[in-house]
Design a protein that fits this description.
The structure is a single chain. The protein is α+β, with helices and mostly antiparallel strands. The protein has 11 helices and 4 strands. It has helices at 53-63, 68-83, 92-109, 119-125, 127-144, 150-165, 169-190, 199-216, 226-235, 237-254, 260-274, and strands at 3-8, 11-15, 21-25, 46-48. It has a 4-stranded antiparallel β-sheet.
């Protein structure tokens, strides 16, 4: 492999045989090197293949400023999310999480802390992502000797969720609010508390994540089976009544009209999550 660009002493880029740019990270891999030199393969620690050129350019710009030790920890966090939690993450995670962790460490060193106003909701609604956030905070302390607050575990969880849903963080905030509001409607309609360890609760939360994402992108499930819709409606009157309350809330707050297909799946999930 031949070096295309030297980004800094620890980061270079190459062009592979498919004419795609790869970003290579390794201690000293770019030291006293220039474009056209051969790559010292013994120094390669990680090869990044980023398909989106804009993301790749942002990543290279960021790596000029971020210490390699920080980048190594961020890479480990991403691998934990992918391998231990089976998360499929958009390439934007490399830019967003690297930038956030680097900035969080700088803030901590200057004794500046930022409160996460959605921490409670994140812990309740996004348990896997929050668990990744906690592992990340632990790794940062162990590897970089910087003890970040629990709020940062919540912020990291939001970046993981952002990369899962391919949404920006402001949309994630809105999605989280929609989910929490719908959960409250269901909870008060049935005068009950959820069993948050149940499989049905997990399925409901997953459904609501993607429901809220469709709402934010103004897309809708298309009506397909009117017979099933009528059957579910008749068989589960209390759950369907709750769905109607959700429909009123959504239309009032967001101007989004639920299709019968959306109401069908909401009713099914509500019936499951509220059944004892």
């Amino acid at each position: 492999m031949v070096i295309n660009k030297v980004i800094n002493n620890n980061v270079i880029s190459v062009i592979n045989h498919q004419e795609k740019e790869l970003v290579i990270m390794g201690r000293g891999v770019g030291f006293q090197k220039k474009s056209g030199d051969n790559v010292d393969k013994s120094k390669i620690e990680k090869i990044f293949t980023l398909d989106n050129k804009d993301i790749s350019d942002q990543f290279k710009t960021l790596l000029r400023e971020v210490p390699i030790e920080t980048m190594e920890v961020v890479e480990k966090i991403i691998q934990v999310a992918k391998t231990e939690y089976n998360k499929e993450l958009n390439d934007i995670i490399y830019v967003a999480l690297t930038d956030h962790v680097n900035f969080a460490i700088e803030r901590k060193k200057e004794n500046q802390s930022v409160k996460n106003g959605l921490l409670w909701e994140i812990k309740k609604l996004y348990k896997d992502e929050y668990a990744i956030g906690l592992e990340a905070v632990k790794m940062i302390e162990e590897k970089l000797d910087v003890a970040l607050e629990e709020d940062e575990a919540g912020f990291i969880a939001m970046h993981i969720l952002n990369a899962e849903l391919n949404e920006n963080v402001s949309n994630i905030n809105q999605i989280t609010k929609i989910i929490q509001d719908i959960l409250n409607i269901v909870k008060y309609h049935f005068a009950m508390e959820f069993n948050e360890e149940s499989l049905n609760y997990f399925r409901f939360i997953t459904h609501l994540k993607f429901f809220a994402q469709r709402l934010m992108s103004e897309t809708n499930l298309q009506d397909q089976d009117d017979y099933l819709y009528e059957m579910v409606k008749q068989k589960n009157p209390k759950s369907f009544e709750c769905t109607n309350k959700i429909e009123v809330y959504i239309e009032k707050e967001y101007g989004y009209r639920l299709s019968n297909e959306e109401k069908l799946y909401l009713t099914i999930h509500i019936e499951r999550v509220t059944s004892r």
